[in-house]
Structure formats: structure tokens, C-alpha cells
Amino acid sequence: MSRLSVRKTYKLFIGGAFPRSESGRSYVVTSAKGEFVANAARASRKDARDAVVAARKAFPGWSGATPYNRGQILYRVAEMLEGRRAQFAEELGGPKKAAAERVDAAVDRLVWYAGWSDKIASVRGAANPVAGPYFNLSTPEPTGVVAVVAPADPLLGLISVIAPVIVTGNTCVVVASENAPLPAITLAEVLATSDLPGGVVNLLTGHQSELAPWLAAHMDVNGLDLGGVEDADLALKCEQEAAENLKRVFRPASEDWSLDPGLSRMTRFLETKTVWHPVGI
């Protein structure tokens, strides 16, 4: 007699832990061939609020860490991700060689951003000439809590939106790809077993239409990346909700994630702070 395999029901990743959705809801995840693979938690607005609270709590410690330390942690995440290369390739599906190359590209992208952690301040900061006996210095500082709607590319695209946010000292709440959440869930397991402090990255699985507007309207979210929102009406609704507290909104056109990412994503959620120091003190 044949037996049915037990399909896993995956959980959310909030504050470094893996809670179930408070609503108890889940939805079916299928493979590219339409086969039932697993169940993923369907996050609610309450889960989104909990994730924002966790991100805000983690922000002082993470933004106060040295850039070198943040780079070390991102490099450790890259090591852990490469150690589970075969699992990620299987979850991405498609031809094995192409899937493995996409995993390698995600690892390389993490290493690339890790290398920028202690250099971005030198590139974006400045010593400003002033008429007086003062030093005038401009330095970049993180914006705060950033809500990210991840793109359809479930791994390279996901890494490409998370890494630039956290390497500069921000914390984030991420809505994973709705149709292909498994790589994001496995990435959460990687983050939980790396040195990343709990709450720096919080991953929610569920419906964009339910979670994105709520995060956009949240008064304790400082920035919004709508790169993964393909529905124009939903994107417009999120922008309108975000306007109430004037949070930064980033809504790029469709992107080729295999291209050189440049510095624009790292600087998107940075603020410039200018300070004055009397000469000789």
C-alpha cells in the first residue's frame, strides 16, 4: 500500500522566530508544473504589525553596529546560503544548471553588498568647505524601518532588495513572492542560523493585496519599496496610503536582476546628516 507524504506547512519569520500566522490561515504552494508542494502561512495585518514592531525594536542595535560588523554578517549569510545551494536550486525549479547558476548569482550579490558595508559612507559622505573656522561634515545614516514587497524573482530578486536595505543599517519587513515563497522561507531559515540579530529581517508570506497597503499606511514604517508590485492599481493605492506620513516610496520599473546593481538601492533609504565642529576641538 502506498503512503502519502506529509507536506510541510511553513511559518512566518518575525523577530528571529518562526510563529504561525495569528489568523491560522495558509495557502497552497505549487511547483512550476502545478504540483502541490507545501502550505505557506498567509500573514494577516496583525502579523504585519508584529513584524514592524520587531523591526523597530532591532533598529537601534543594528544601525549602531559598525559597518564592518554588518558586512561580516552579510558575508556569513552568503556562506550559509551557499551551503544550502542544492536545496535552493530545487526550490527554484526548472533546469538544474540554470537554477544552480541563479543560486550562485544570489550568493555573489550578497558578497558584493557585504563589501560595500564600510565603504558607502566614504562614497556618499563629504567634508564641505565653509566660510568660517568650522569643519562641516555630511554623513549618510539609515532611514529606519523599510517595508519591501519582493519581486517575482524568488531568490536573486529577493536578495537584491533585502541586502541593500540592511547593509546600510536599516531593518525591514518583507512580503515574499506570493506565487513562489519557498526560497524566501528557506532564506529565513538561513538568516535564523546566521549571526543576523532577530528582527533585522522579517519575512511574511501571503497576499500582496492584503499586506502591502497596510504596511504602506503604517506610521512606524519609514520607507517603502514597491519593486515587486505588478498591479498598477495596488501600487497606486500603496503610494496614496504612504503619503499620509510622507515615507519614502521607491517604485522602480521592471528590472533585470542579473545586471550590475550599482549603488542606487543602497542610497535609496539613506538620509544625509550634516554636523558642524569648531576647528581645534
UniProtKB/TrEMBL annotation:
InterPro entries: Ald_DH/histidinol_DH (IPR016161), Ald_DH_N (IPR016162), Aldehyde_DH_dom (IPR015590). Gene3D superfamilies: Aldehyde Dehydrogenase, Chain A, domain 1. Residues 22-249 form the Aldehyde dehydrogenase domain. Keywords: Oxidoreductase. SUPFAM superfamilies: ALDH-like. The keyword Ribonucleoprotein does not apply. It comes from the Bacteria. It holds the Pfam family Aldedh. This is Acyl-CoA reductase-like NAD-dependent aldehyde dehydrogenase. The lineage of its organism: Bacteria, Bacillati, Actinomycetota, Actinomycetes, Streptosporangiales.
